[in-house]
Amino acid sequence: MSEDLVLTEIDAATGIATLTINRPKVLNALDVPTARAFLQAVRKVTATKGLRCIVLAGSGRAFMAGGDVAAFGKDPDRAAEVVHDLLDALHPALTALRESPAPVIAKVQGVAAGAGFSLMLGADLVIAEAGARFVVAYDRIGTSPDCGGTWALPRKVGRAKAMELLLLGETLSAEEARAAGIVNKVVPAEELDAEALALAKRIASGPTQALGAVRALIDAALDRPFAAHLEAERASFIRMTGTRDFREGVSAFLEKRQPQFRGE
Q1: Which value, to the nearest 10 degrees, does the dihedral of the CA atoms of residues 143, 145, 147, 149 take?
Q2: Largest CA distance in the chain
Q3: What pLDDT score was predicted for residue 117?
Q4: pLDDT at residue 95 above 60?
Q5: Measuring CA to CA, how many Å separate 33 from each of 4, 66, 133?
């Protein structure tokens, strides 16, 4: 197996990029070198011409067990410094993923906990194996979430359910996570890779710029007055009329055929 802390695979034919955290011996727990490698990988991928979809994954038995708590335990007096180093890398990486028009899919096996749970919440779609488990985990080490967890969770499940998960720290099964709105699809473990690839290909064949605009509108919807949001929708629609995919979509509709979008 490669010693790279983050494996990066870009399929030029489909426009699908896969970023895989690669510390399987510690369930892909994030330490500072891994966070920095993740930032470099995200920058590389989001700068790739023709990017249509991003898949986030973890090597081995887990998606990600969270931050590397051992790094905090080595010297508790330096814990704040370690957290700053981690988040100085993770924040620009997460922001770049959010600002890229390419939709993000999280492919989850094993456990998604702590920072892994937050990272997964930031994805646009989540597909999980039937045996996957999901847990906030921050309460277990006496701290509050990071990596956008408290921003994304209430948007997915509502305030009441978010507070329940954050305050009680209960572990959710894959089906419970799906019922709560955290996971979109649950599949048998042996089908996870194939199903995730099929989902990524379906997303990658869509009008990428428009899909990115959808995400931006959804993200802003809860913080914007209705009248202002109507105007934001108008502005977004107008921008999309300048894309090649809009012209292709209109032509395909009028010609009663399937559109062939290029993500442009």
Answers
A1: 180
A2: 67
A3: 97
A4: yes
A5: 10, 14, 26
